[in-house]
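note to self — DONT lose this again. spent like an hour looking for the file last time. sequence + predicted structure for the chain T wanted, 381 res
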Amino acid sequence: MRVLHLHSGNLYGGVETCLLTLAREAACAPGMTSEFAVCFDGRFSEALIDLGRTPHALGAVRLSRPQSVRRARAALRDLLHRAQVDVVVCQQAWSCVVFGSVAREMGYPLVLWVHMASDGGHWLERLVQLTPPDVVVCNSRFSASRVIKWLPRVPRHVAYCPVSPPVPTHAVTRHETRRALGADDGQVIITMAARAEALKGHRVLIEALARLKDQRNWTCWLVGGAQRQAEAKYLETLVQLARQLHLTERVRFLGSRDDARDVIAASDVYCQPNLEPEAFGLSLIEAMYARLPVVASAAGGALEIVDDTCGKLTPLGDVTAVADALARLIADPARRDSLGDAGRHRARALCAPDLQMPHIERVLASAARRRPAAMDEAHAG
């Protein structure tokens, strides 16, 4: 089965991480070959090239410029005429709006892969309803519960994103990473790795840490840079907040890093107190793989990831609850180790590629079976 994934490609986050894992862990689903087509060059396409999976270029698209949409659709038609594809997968509503009609008119089974917990109120999701997919893949039960509101008659399948387990981190590597970032082995490092968006809860974390200033043995690393102008402005407000709360020396903004996994592995606690529910939470899985106890908000996909065996869930926006959870973990290294060990096993049970890749293959194969027989005859001819 040959799968063509269509994606914008202009940003880099959870969606791109998931797609790169599909490429990297292809051996876990030998019956499925994934190809990728993008509209924009950038970090994502460069990462695919590094994996030996050069994406097809469809050309830059601006929905406000109809000619760019027409050119990209023509490029996709040409690609589908040339390629031996069994199913077309649009990543997110944007790709489905731009390209779904092309796949439909050419008779290809159309899949929409939803990575966000939206209830259909966005204008892009309303447009998707004009050309509904044959199948929807949801990255959590929570996102599936939202999709039913705007695509109620489309079959839905839940597939957690596969996450590659990290290479075991040696004590020397951990020590070197901490030393390079100015932390000694006696400090408790609290880390958050997330996009610079307010919903991720950076402010809640910083305000919670302000209540722990009397505990002298912790440092916080915030990993994640700005990809848009609004995100740059938001980051500046966080820097100002840390300054106002006299946390400049203890809360460090590390920006976007290619070694984010090493930074997480060199930490002791992971905290992401979202202000709004999110569909899933790949960073939570990454942290659990690294044996870090997790403090997260009790909402959305996090409820499917974190339980009492591996971390602590707190109410949305509850600074006091976050501060209390962190204080307990800072003071109790044995508890950190216990939760971390359980978290590693739970992360594997949820997202190990050898479990999720075959499941994704089965889900996409169910869509591929919708391919008209006339198309198979045309390709055979």
